[in-house]
């Protein structure tokens, strides 16, 4: 694995990336991590679109695509060495989460179209010290074909999105063939596998089934944390070897060190040099569940922060809502997104303080096609919209600020 000292990462970015050079222009020599300005996503990706985040030419490795803050795709770049480090680091930790020699795993993540998840999952298992047999079906396979493969090839591990896994469970339950399966564990990523979903899986496949996160990672920030056997619901351990994870107070920006205090997660990668990630917001909230100083300190994910709403695998930004309303010539004073659970699926309500206007749900699905795709495939509930008075919106009780995003899934 190729990792670098923090000072080298900062100096390299400062000297070679126009974006970081400008961001750090007021700083003195050898600044400490906590002295560095936080990255703002909108500025970062606007600069990235012009090649101004990069520290050099991209000549080898990988390019991945994901949705941007205004519906425009954003491209995450990895050199071959960076991609190798990311996959090897993640694979190294897999046995500590339960992976063992001889496991037979079906990969149901999405591949092609510059998606990272299928290729990343394949590479993780391929890099692991535990030798396993992989069946690369992918996320576009028919449910009947997936189940046939599970039975015929005695698969004992399923790796996929929770929404896909639940569709498989519905099929198995409908056909009454749970007894034909030999599943020991479910690997998931991209979404939380909630307790009611786990309960349904246990009812079908047995109480001893294990639930394991593939990792805590993203296209842009890379690997951030890994799953260990001692992790509880939504817990991971920080990958100290390849990144620095910070929890920051959402109001003051203060670095949080104590347990059980909720903060916004920011990441500094110690291996990404081409497109540096330094004090970069992951978009998630979390809290430490171990004392300060614990190696690979354990923390719990607590849903998205106010920068975006995650429903299934679709990400909705406040800018998307504004764009949809403006395109409909709507008159509104404010809005918020409320995320919850409905019939074992994620659901979202767009609460808009303003005069009722038709066509909002269609417009938001047009702006973020991945949301429409999730709805069409039955992976999430159909979005709802409520028009109300400004006083009906919810506000932060301490600061009085409007809460753009309310995630009730972790309440």
Q: Could you say what the CATH architecture of the largest domain is?
A: 3-Layer(aba) Sandwich
DSSP strand tally: 21
Mean pLDDT: 91
Radius of gyration: 22 Å
Share of helix, binned: 25-40%
Tell me the span between the first and last alpha carbons.
Answer: 39 Å
Number of domains: 3
CATH class of the largest domain: Alpha Beta
What class do helices, strands and sheet pairing give? Answer: alpha/beta
Discrete helix count: 11
* Percent of residues in beta strands: 25-35%
CATH fold label of the largest domain: Rossmann fold
Provide the descriptors you would attach to this structure in a database record.
411 residues, alpha/beta, GMP Synthetase, Chain A, domain 3, 3 domains, 5-stranded parallel β-sheet, 27% helix
Condensed summary:
With 411 residues, this protein is an alpha/beta fold. It contains 11 helices and 21 strands. The strands form 5 sheets. The chain has an 8-stranded antiparallel sheet, with helices on one face. Strands 4-3-5-6-7 form a 5-stranded parallel sheet.
Task: Please characterize this protein's 3D structure.
Helix content is 27%, strand content 27%. With 411 residues, the chain is of the alpha/beta class. It folds into three domains: 6-78 and 216-304, 3-Layer(aba) Sandwich (Rossmann fold), CATH 3.40.50; 83-213, Rossmann fold (3-Layer(aba) Sandwich), CATH 3.40.50; 309-410, 2-Layer Sandwich (GMP Synthetase, Chain A, domain 3), CATH 3.30.300.30. It has an eight-stranded antiparallel sheet with strand order 8-9-10-15-14-13-11-12, with helices on one face. A five-stranded parallel sheet has the order 4-3-5-6-7. Strands 20-19-18-21 form a four-stranded mixed sheet, with helices on one face. The two termini are 39 Å apart. The mean pLDDT is 91.
